[in-house]
Design brief:
The protein has 131 residues and is of the alpha+beta class. The protein has a domain at 43-109: His-Me finger endonuclease fold, CATH 3.40.1800. It is built from 3 helices and 4 strands. It has helices at 23-33, 43-58, 98-109; strands spanning 3-5, 14-16, 76-80, 92-97. The strands form 2 sheets. Strands 1-2 form a two-stranded antiparallel sheet. The chain has a two-stranded antiparallel sheet with strand order 3-4. Strand 1 (3-5) and strand 2 (14-16) form a beta hairpin. It is globular, with a radius of gyration of 18 Å.
Length: 131
């Protein structure tokens, strides 16, 4: 099996390709990150998210970021329009494709501007609800 060095600066441990960090660094990261409850994700949040995701796939609503329909079987995220990193009191209120949400979050974390039209860089389609 091929391995690489853990990406945490100064960590000498080897990890398998595809792993994010070694077990020691992962445990420290998990502890610093906190539990779902500590991060503000309550049981109500998960109930609202499940209901919103089911409705989005049933109605084949379009993702606000890429304008493509959300279909059964796709991984979806219940997202905060204002990121928690910006406003800890914001509530999740929209459903997005998981890949679109991850792309948007990554760009925010690295202080990059949003891609025009969404993560795929394409302008919104006519009739979509994308901004």
């Amino acid at each position: 099996m091929t391995s690489r060095i853990c990406p945490k600066p100064g960590c000498p441990n080897f990890i398998p390709i595809g792993a994010k960090r070694c077990k020691t660094c992962q445990a420290a990261w998990d502890k610093a990150r906190g539990s779902n409850t500590e991060r503000g994700y309550t049981a109500e949040h998960f109930r609202r998210g499940a209901k919103a995701k089911a409705e989005a796939t049933r109605k084949k609503l379009r993702c606000e970021l890429c304008s493509k329909p959300m279909l059964p079987g796709q991984e979806l995220h219940f997202d905060h329009e204002t990121p928690l990193a910006v406003d800890r009191s914001s509530r999740a209120s929209r459903v997005l494709h998981a890949s679109c949400n991850a792309s948007a979050g990554g760009r925010l974390a690295h202080n990059l501007p949003p891609k025009p039209g969404g993560p795929d860089g394409q302008p919104p389609r006519a009739g979509s609800t994308a901004p």
